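Look over what follows to help learners.
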Amino acid sequence: MDRVMEIAAAEGAIDAHMFTPDGADKALPPVVMFTDIGGLRPSYYEKAQKVAEGGYAVLLPNIYYRDVTGQAVPDSRSYRERAMLSTLRSYGRRLTPDALAGDFEALLRCIDAEPEFADGGIGVVGYCMTGGFALRMAANHSRRVVAAAGFHSARLAVEDDPASPLHVVDSIEAQVYLGHADRDELMPPDQIARLDGALAEAGVHFTTELYRGAGHGYSTSDAPAHDEVAEARHYKRLFTLLKETID
């Protein structure tokens, strides 16, 4: 079931969707899902509902609410078009660590207030650029977030990037899973190694997996690199992480 919501935040109202299993009659463990660069759209509604059907209440916020309500990309357009990517990247530049910190606070207030969400630990999952959001939310709220996952994440450990989540992983208490694509130019081997080293040095309980033959966007049905086998594996790994932590 898809419920449309508005969440009060410091910089405006975050429009969001809450997905629960059909016929759910009790509070369920909360999962925050962040979309990839393309923002809210049917492929992510489907993804969030599939996770919800596993027994969770999934909160899917509009990461671009400061600039647009609802879908940032019209149904008649593709987020991969050069002009659309330019627009989305301009929206994304506003998602600084400080801006995200306020958004995370708002999402947690929503989870605390809505009866569909059970008490206890929270899971967070991000895709593409929002794999970093998942890590950062886990770092900012280490007592609340007990599971954090990123799939075909982008630029998590760019050297000398002061905004990289690399610099906050020592605050993470959550169990972390990262599913990288071995044909992903946005998360090359040197960045994977750099992030793994930082997580290990910080003592984070983490798993890194390389999806052989997969490209950036493998888990998302409307991405050019969509891979059904890799998508199925991503759900399997995500459900395993959630069952080990928030069930």
In short: The chain has a mean pLDDT of 96. The chain is about 35% helix and 25% strand.
